[in-house]
Structures are given as structure tokens and as C-alpha cells.
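Hi team,

Below is the intake form for Alpha/beta hydrolase-fold protein from Thioclava kandeliae. Please confirm the fields before the structure is written into the shared record.

FORM ID: S-0412
PROTEIN: Alpha/beta hydrolase-fold protein
ORGANISM: Thioclava kandeliae
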Amino acid sequence: MTEDLKLRRRVLPLLAGLPLLLAGRSAKAEKGQAEVRLDGTEELSLPSDMGDFVIRIAYPEAPAPAGGYGVIYALDAGWSFGTLRDAVRLRGQDPARADAAPVAVVAIGWPARDLVDMARRTQDLTGAGVERLLGWMKAVLMPEIETRFACDPAQRMICGHSFGGSFALQARRLAPGLFSHVAAGSPSIWTDPQALLGAAKGEGKLFITIGGQETAHAAEAAHQPADRVARIRERDMMGRARQLAEGAGVPLKIYDGLSHGASATPFYADAVSFLRQA
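The structure came back. Fields below:
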């Protein structure tokens, strides 16, 4: 038998199995199953009458203090979890913040590719879905988390960007005192302006941010399509964020030069600092 034939007999069976291997990986990705597990993290699937949720948890590296860990409950796990986890860990390594209480991240996503499901996101984070999801968090998610580690209610944050930001503000309005800290990045106040702007004096320390480019003028300068400019003008993200911040008596942090999407990354990092310092 020639060496070439021997090589083919060894390699061809491997190649035959390759499509099945790739298909298996693709199926995992479609179901939102991570192929890489980060140290100190866990993934849960929890049912609800709104459909299943996928929860990603990043556990603190330090032992729990007497009062328990701080906890960040974050919306949009597919976008928020990695940034928040890294921000928490990097700040824990800062000698200037060595006394800061350790913080866990609990991020809420959907059983879809990258944990992002745009239809469910709209359904769950706006309108009537807000009260249903908030009720599920109180009845199911938060008790489940509190069986896993000790939590400090004085260091409990709700955190979200865009639709997640408006959800965080609604949680502050609908469940006074449930969250000690509320972080809302570029919140979609336009989804319910009367309720959100009318409840600016709600309970919970408030951190609110906006991208400096989230104006109709910036969209026009960037030669955005006319319909997009009109939509940005109607939603008035900047104006409503200013109005909310003024009504709540807190500063509005503006990320100069950043668009709506680009402002999410610095927002999540600053939200961690807000929890640990406020």
C-alpha cells in the first residue's frame, strides 16, 4: 500500500465527520449556548410566562463581606455581560480601590444567538412587558440569586442601555427601594415619556448618561437619511435625558463624540464605578 493511500485512509474519515462537528457548533451558537466558559461565571436557563430567559452570572473573586456582595442586575446580557464583568474585575485590581466591596454581575438575556432576541427585547423591556419582567425578577430571579450567594441590598443596582435604560428607570418608578442604585445609559424615555419624566424624584441613587452625538443636528451633520434624522428629532434623546436629570437633581454625563451605540461601552464601565463609589 502506497504512503499516499495510507494517508487518505487516515484523513478521509476525519473529513467525513467535519460537517457534523461544524453543524453541532452552529446549533449551539443558534441556541445561544456559549462554547467558551469564562472562569468564575455560570449560565442558567430560567422559565417564565414570557418565555425562557438565559442568565449569566460573574461571581466575585473575593470572599463575601459581612453584608454580602454588591450585585449588578443588567439587561441585554449579550451586550452588557462581558463589559461589566471585565470592568468589575479590573477595578478590583486597582490598589486605589482595594477597599471597594466585591460585586457580582447578573445579566439577563434570551435563548437566542448571542443571547439577543430583538423581538423579545422590545416585548420584555417596553410597554406592558416592563411590569411582567420586573415581577418575574422579584419573584424568581432575585430569590434564585440570593440562594447562591449573600447579597447586600444596599449595593443592588439595576443597569441598562437604550431600552434597558428606560426599563431601569421604570423599575425605579414601579418598585421604589428595590434597587439602591439605578444606572440608565441613553435611556429610551420616548417609549413612555409622561410616566418616566413625571417620576424623576423616585427612589434609588441615579446615574444617567447620553452620547454626545444623539441629536438630530449631529445626525444631519453625518448625512444620515432624512427619515432617521426625523426619528431622532422626534425621540429627543438628549433633551429628555437632560430634563430627567434636572428633575431628579443629578448630573447628566455626556460622552462627547459618541453615538447611541458607541456610548454603551463607557456607560457600563462607569456604572460599575458609580455602584462602588456612590
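SUMMARY LINE: The first helix runs from residue 3 to 30.

Thanks, M.
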